[in-house]
Amino acid sequence: MMISPIAAAFATQTGRIALVTGANKGIGFCIAVQLALSGLFSHIVLGCRDPTRGDAAVSRIQAQLNTISPPSASCTTISYLPLTLGDKQSHQQLRKSLEEQFGKVDVLINNAAMAYKGADPTPHEEQCKPTLDVNFRGTVDLTEELLPLLRLGNDARVVNVASMAGRLRQLRSSQLRSKFTSPELTMEELQSYVDQYERDVLDGTYQQKGWGGSNYGMSKLAVIAATRIWAREEAEHGIKVNCCCPGYCDTDMTSHRGTRSPEDGARNAVIPATMEHAPTVESISMIPSFASRGGSPSLFPAHPDPTKYKKLDMAAKKSKADDKAEKVMIPRRKLQSVPDLLANGTNEEDPSTPESWVTKTLWMAFLLLLFYLSFELFLKLDKMSREQNGGNDEL
C-alpha cells in the first residue's frame, strides 16, 4: 500500500498519534487513558467495533482527563474510529481514515481480541477458526495494513497484547517448537503453521500431531511469533515492536474472576509504548531487568511531568463514584521478556478453558469429602466408646 505525497507531508506537521484497538472497555480503555495522560501524544484514537460504546468511551476518557489539574484534555484529544478486527474491509477503511486525518501513526497497540468462555457449549473445533481469525489473522492483517503509516511515524512503536496462555510449552512437539522459534521464521510460514493447526483441529488429529489444546493459547502463541518477525523486519524502518502479557485481569473476558486490575495490566502495554530508548523483542532478553523474574524494570516511560502520575492516583482515590473500569491508576509492574512469554509458566489463566475453576471445584469437593469422612469416623468411634462403657456398667 502506497502513501500519497500529501499524506506524507501532512505527517511531518502533526503531533504524535496513538491507536488502541478494543479500547472501549477493560484493559484497552485503561491503555488509552494512560497514553493520554503521558503527555506524549496529541491524539489518541480508539478503534472499536460498537460506535455507541466507542463514543461513550471517548466521553469517559475526556471527563477523566478534565479531573486532572491542569486539564490534560487541553493537550490531548480523543476520538473514535470504527474497527471490526478480522474484517479486511474494516481494516482498510480504518487505514484510510487515519491517513486522511493524520497522515501517519506513531504507536499501534493491538489490544483487541476474543475468547470463548470455559463453559461455552460451542465444540472445540467450531471455536478454532473464529478465534484464529480475530486474534491472529485479524491482528496480522490490520498491522500489515498500518505499517506504511507507522513508517512515517516519529519513534514508531507497535505493542501486541499477548498472553502467558501463548507459552511455547503448550506445543508437545519439539519440532513445532523449533519452527515457531526459528530466527528465520517468515510471516508466510507462520500463517501456514496456523492454517495447519486449524486443519488438524477440524479433523481431530491436533493432539496426536503435537499441538496444544487451547485455541486461544494457540492464537496468542502465533501473535508472539509474529511480534518477533515484525521486530526483525521493521528494524530498518525504525519501528520498535514488542508484546506483553497484561496478566489475569478483572475484565469481561475473564468474567471478572481476574485478580489484577485492568489499570495494572494496561501499564504493561503502556511501558514499551512510551519508554525512552525502548528495546525490541530481538534485544529485550539482553537487558537483565527485563529477563529477571524478580524486582522492577530499570526503564520507565519517558514523561515530561512525572507528577502527573501522582496527581492521577490522587484523582482516582477522590472519585469514589467511579466504577473499577473508570478508575485512573497506574501502578508499577514488572515486564517480562519475549523468551519468558514463550517459555515460562502462566500467570494468566486462559479464559477459553475451564481448567482453573475445575481445579478449584475439585479441591473444594475433596476437602468436603475429607471433612465428611472424618466426621463419620468420629461418630463411629464415639458409638464404640459408648457401647464399651455400657458393657462395663453391666458388669
Give a nutshell description of this structure.
By secondary structure, the protein is α/β, with parallel strands linked by helices. It is built from 13 helices and 6 strands. It is globular, with a radius of gyration of 25 Å.
Structure description:
- Belongs to the short-chain dehydrogenases/reductases (SDR) family.
- This protein is of the alpha/beta class and 395 residues long.
- The protein folds into 2 domains: 349 residues, Rossmann fold (3-Layer(aba) Sandwich); 41 residues.
- The chain is 49% helix and 8% strand.
- It is built from 13 helices and 6 strands.
- Strands 3-2-1-4-5-6 form a 6-stranded parallel β-sheet, with helices on both faces.
- The longest helix is centred in the C-terminal third of the chain and has 40 residues.
Which labels suit this protein?
13 helices, Rossmann fold, 2 domains, globular, six-stranded parallel sheet, alpha/beta, 395 residues
State the name of the first-level CATH class of the largest domain: Alpha Beta
Let me know the number of strands: 6
Reported for the largest beta sheet, the result is:
6 strands, parallel
Mean pLDDT: 80
Task: Look at the structure and name the CATH superfamily of the largest domain.
Answer: NAD(P)-binding Rossmann-like Domain
**What's the helix count?**
13
Query: How big a fraction of the residues is strand?
Result: 5-15%
For the largest beta sheet, what order do the strands appear in spatially? 3-2-1-4-5-6
Structural class of the secondary structure composition? alpha/beta
Helical percentage:
40-55%
